[in-house]
Amino acid sequence: VQLQASGGGLVQAGGSLRLSCAVSGSIFSINTMGWYRQPPGMQRELVATITSSGSTNYADSVRGRFTVSRDNTKNTVFLQMNGLKPEDTAVYYCYLRCRLRSTPVLYEYWGQGTLVTVSS
Which residues contact 67 (CB under 8 A, 6 or more apart)? Predict the structure, then answer.
């Protein structure tokens, strides 16, 4: 199973970016997809997740500015980021929790990370 993220870059404060993450490989079913981020010198933190039923969860710091969505037909998760702030600068990692076969065991995978830099 591989996760390929794209869409990071440099943007001015107040601008927007859209991240994408495509999942490839043999998967029985997807439970949760989403995004985490790691600001410089800090620990990785939750940004947003979305379940197979469409339930979403957001960090308080991004709620109302970021929107997580997914395309179940393409096993792809998106993160629309609006109103970006310098404190959003981080490496963004896509996240996957899935089942590889018809058992209840869940597996977790991470993408390689994509850098988002927001200038003031």
Answer: 48, 79, 80, 82
